[in-house]
Amino acid sequence: MAHTVVPAAEEILDREYPVLDKGFVRLVDYLGGDERIAQAARVSYGAGTRTVREDAALIDHLLRNEHTSPFEQVVLTFHVKLPVFVARQWIRHRTARVNEISGRYSIMKDEFYVPAPDDVALQSRDNKQGRTDEPVPPEAAHATIARMRDDQKAAYESYAALVESGLARELARINLPLSLYTEWYWQIDLHNLFRFLSLRLDPHAQREIRAYAAALLEVARKVAPTACASFERHVLGGTQFSAEEMRELRCRLEGGAATLSGKELERFEEKLRSGRQT
User: How large is the average pLDDT for residues 103-120?
Assistant: First the structure.
């Protein structure tokens, strides 16, 4: 099978897509695109055996029915610059290959993430691992940001002094905060990228990692636009109902009495209202 060249992907190779205040996502390399997905599904060789419309219909069918292996034929390699706390959430997705900068060998840069004032919010009363949707007043936000910057400056000055004293880098680095920026190469196939995006574009995911997920999707659209369109239509724009929720939905369509209550009803109503914007 000849190497698949996707012109739109070629145009953005090595282009940095800015994320947060100092981070970025860039496409380093890719293997395959929409055409490769269709070819793998048909187990055929050579281009031009089917029309673009037929390929699109096939790809949509594959994704809608969760035939995942053809999507694994497309592989993307990203260079990502991100805060350490985002990286620790990100690395929980174990279906990729990662090579990260090492503070044992390299002097870490004086670069730290500081949230924008509109992103500074109080702890949510309902969500134990998240913040409220409303930012704090501007004065409080700027005071918080100033405190973060002061702490980051002090931590880096201490780190730099320890390195200058000759202390081993692997020891000097250990007091650096989670806001420090790191970098890695991250390679993943399209099927597992879609799984990553379905979780990290969810409104319940932390705002900072959602920003990276949005950038990844923007890049993936250049590599496999038809597959991404199907993913957005059926996964990001869709939802799944449990057996109990399906009974509730049928009752509503038939004008019957509600079958859910309490938290189950709240979750069902949220699914009906949800719609992820990317």
Answer: 96
- Annotation says 36 is catalytic: no
- The structural domain count of the chain equals 2
**pTM of structure:** 0.90
One domain, residues 204 and 277: no
In angstroms, the CA 113 to CA 179 distance is 5
Do 104 and 188 fall into the same domain?
yes
Q: In the structure encoding, which two tokens stand for residue 41, read together?
A: 């599904």
3: tokens are 């190497």
Instruction: Residue count of the chain, please give it.
Output: 278
Residue 260 and residue 210 share a domain: no
Query: What tokens appear for 30 in the block?
Result: 């890719």
Tokens of 135: 């930012």
Catalytic residue among 26, 88, 147, 200: 200
Q: How many CB atoms lie within 10 A of CB 143?
A: 13
Give the orientation angle of helix 190-200 with respect to helix 207-223, to 10 degrees: 150
pLDDT, tens digit (0-9, with 9 covering 90-100), for 151-196: 999 999 999 999 999 999 999 999 999 999 999 999 999 999 999 9
Determine the structural domain holding residue 278 and report its residue range. 240-278
**Number of neighbouring beta carbons within 10 Å of residue 174:** 9
Between CA 233 and CA 241, with CA 238 as vertex, the angle to 5 degrees is: 155
Whether 18 and 64 map to the same domain: the answer is yes
Q: In this structure, are 29 and 73 located in the same domain? A: yes
Same domain, 188 and 278: no
